[in-house]
Amino acid sequence: MAQVDPGKLRPGMKVVIDGDLYIVQSFDLRTPGNLRSFVRSKMKKVSDGRVTEMTFRGASNIEEADYGTRTCQFLYSDGEDFTFMDLQTFEQFSVTADFLGIQAQFLIPEAEVIVAFWNDQPVGIELPPKMTFTVTDTIGDITRGNTANTITKEATIETGFKLQVPTFVRIGDKIRVSTEDGSYVERA
Predict the structure, then answer these.
(1) pTM surpassing 0.90?
(2) Domains in the chain: how many in total?
(3) Phi/psi of residue 97, each to 5°?
(4) Do 60 and 72 have their domain in common?
(5) Helices (H), the chain
């Protein structure tokens, strides 16, 4: 594993500190006056999900994580656990809803995703930035006339996730949704 300069940390980067895998959530490089610069960052420990604030000065014991990715297929969810299958080895593994975060709301059975592994343990999942879903429920027309502001209404997509959409979206429409924040992008 290669040493990483703290000034080169970026959100989403996976690093090893004292034998534990962390994912960089945010970082802030500071150079106060004529003192040495330092980096203050928020790191999420993969093993337990806790977010910790860390400060690094100069050379530190940060190593870039050597991890691999595999294409996997989402099979099913039993409520709290989500089961995937590695498409090369056909081995199945499960991860929790906490591990997936908001991405759990966008998994459809048989969807292919990229899963990052470190020491044969899943450490991250990568969905496409935008995915297409069918609207299964929404209210009817909203009265027109308020053109000064964008009018939205609540809609439910096929996974059960609820989001705000423009008033022209109807039940059965296909829409694109951002998998990063769950927002409406466009009609498909």
Answers:
(1) no
(2) 3
(3) -65, -35
(4) no
(5) 97-100
Same domain, 47 and 79: no
User: How far apart are alpha carbons 161 and 158 in whole angstroms?
Assistant: 7
pLDDT tens per residue, range 92-121: 999 988 888 888 889 988 889 999 888 888
Residue 32 in this model has a pLDDT that exceeds 80: no
CA-closest candidate to residue 155, choices 132, 172, 179:
172
46 within domain boundaries: yes
CATH number at residue 108: 2.40.50.140
Cα–Cα distance, 140 to 26 (Å, whole number): 41
Listed residue (31, 30, 18, 28) closest to 60, CA to CA: 18
**Residues whose CB is less than 8 angstroms from the CB of residue 147 and which lie 6 or more positions away in sequence, other chains included:** none
Residue 24 token pair = 């960089």
Domain-located, residue 80: yes
- Rounded Cα distance between 91 and 102, Å, is 25
